[in-house]
Amino acid sequence: MTLSELQAHSVKSVGELQRQIRGLSLDAFLVSDLSNVRYLTSFSGTTALCVIYPDSSIFLTDFRYKEQAAIEVASCEIEIYDGNVIDYLAKKIFRGLRGRKLSIGIEDTISVGTLDELSSKVSSGEFTKTSQVIEKIASRKSKPELELIKQACSISGTALEILVQEEWTGKSETELAATLEFNQKVMGASKESFDTIVASGMRGAMPHGIASGRTIEKNELVTIDFGCFFGGYASDITRTFSTGPKIKSRLSKVYQIVLEAQRKAADFAKAGVAAKSVDRAARSYIERKGYAKYFGHGTGHGVGLRIHELPRVSRTSDDVLEEGNVITIEPGIYLPGIGGVRIEDDFVVTQNGVEQLTHFSKEMEYYITTYGK
After folding, report:
1. Which among 298, 302, 306, 305 has a CA at the least distance from the CA of 326?
2. For the range 311-317, what are the long-range contacts, defined as Cβ-Cβ under 8 Å and sequence gap of 24 or more?
């Protein structure tokens, strides 16, 4: 079998998790989070578990995915189960060792109900919750992962380029969102990476203003935050547009402050830098300009198989940037009753700085020229 680059990456990922298991003195690690299963196996279905031992690995799914698993999974031995998967785990997988129980690591995302069922049925095991073991490994993106993220970013950028050729005034926010989502899927995206945000006029003061039925008007700002999944990997981009040249001077000023704050954070970011310091680079500039209380969220987050991953780029983050991290940098200022501005791009962290992966103009003059006709 000739492995794809992504499958080869999954084999290495399982090997890294096995090293972690040995370091944690675990007999096995149960992986139930589907994003983590996909990271370890390249499996894109919706029903699966992995059991990773220090020197072997098992992938479990049901009959519906037998053929798909045979094509996609190269890093684990494949087993097809019938009935309740926890019953199968108890009877076929976790049989215990003589004289003691198996020490089995589980993810901290596992539900209370699932853990209770495991504990009651798998008498041969003692379950230990772990914290973000796989997520920390997955935060460092491999070359094939980066290529998929770049493709997702390219799709989103092209979809936005198409959208800006249209007249926006008189359309609803949901119309713009639907057009973006449709364009992304036509170009190969599997789905949007989160509910598309289109916040126009005073709604721009809502950082998570999901597209509504509001009609977009002339001479106002419109913030659009959206993305897509391609090959399982996400993009995330935000731009704030003008629908005409007669924008309130305060909002034009705020736009330039947010743009400069993003530049300062991007200039500061590189491998070895504390994520909270990147947040501080953007936040301190906004504070100096007098808008501290209007920037209430973190400056960014990791992106990959999930739209929000490690590292966290915030005031309270303990994460340190590593080469291969993909992060967003997305400062914003939100003025209640007036409007708001956010600018966001995806970046890959290198030893010498960051490389921007999302490409679309951020200059205010571009938007006024385009939409002020």
Report:
1. 302
2. 311/139, 311/275, 312/275, 313/265, 313/275, 313/276, 313/278, 313/279, 314/275, 314/276, 314/279, 315/276, 315/279, 315/280, 315/283, 316/276, 317/274, 317/275, 317/276, 317/279
Q: What percent of the chain has pLDDT over 90?
A: 88
What is the full DSSP assignment across 285-302? HHHHTT-GGG--S-SEEE
191-231 per-position pLDDT tens digit: 999 999 999 999 999 999 999 999 999 999 999 999 999 99
pLDDT (0 to 100) of residue 123? 85
The two tokens of residue 334 are: 């939100």
pTM above 0.85, yes or no: yes
pLDDT tens digit sequence for 230-245 = 999 999 999 999 988 8
Continuous segment of H or E residues that includes residue 310: strand 309-313
pLDDT tier at 371 (50, 70, 90 boundaries)? very low
Helices (H), 246-331: 249-268, 275-288
Q: Has residue 289 got a pLDDT over 60?
A: yes
What residues pair up with 22 in beta bridges, in sequence order? Answer: none
Angstrom distance (rounded) from CA 43 to CA 68: 8
116, two tokens: 């209770």
* Rounded Cα gap, residues 348 and 21, in angstroms: 28
At residue 95, does pLDDT exceed 90?
no
Token pair of 321, please? 């940037």
User: In whole angstroms, what is the distance from residue 241 CA to residue 263 CA?
Assistant: 18
Q: Could you give the CA distance from residue 282 to residue 275 in angstroms, rounded to a whole number?
A: 12
Task: Quote the pLDDT of residue 302.
Answer: 98
- Alpha carbon separation from 7 to 13, 43, 227, 228 (Å, rounded): 10, 9, 25, 22
Give the long-range contacts of residues 125-133, CB within 8 A, separation 24 or more: 125/28, 125/94, 125/96, 125/101, 126/101, 126/102, 127/30, 128/26, 128/103, 128/104, 129/105, 130/24, 130/29, 130/105, 130/106, 132/108, 132/310, 133/17, 133/20, 133/24, 133/29, 133/105, 133/107
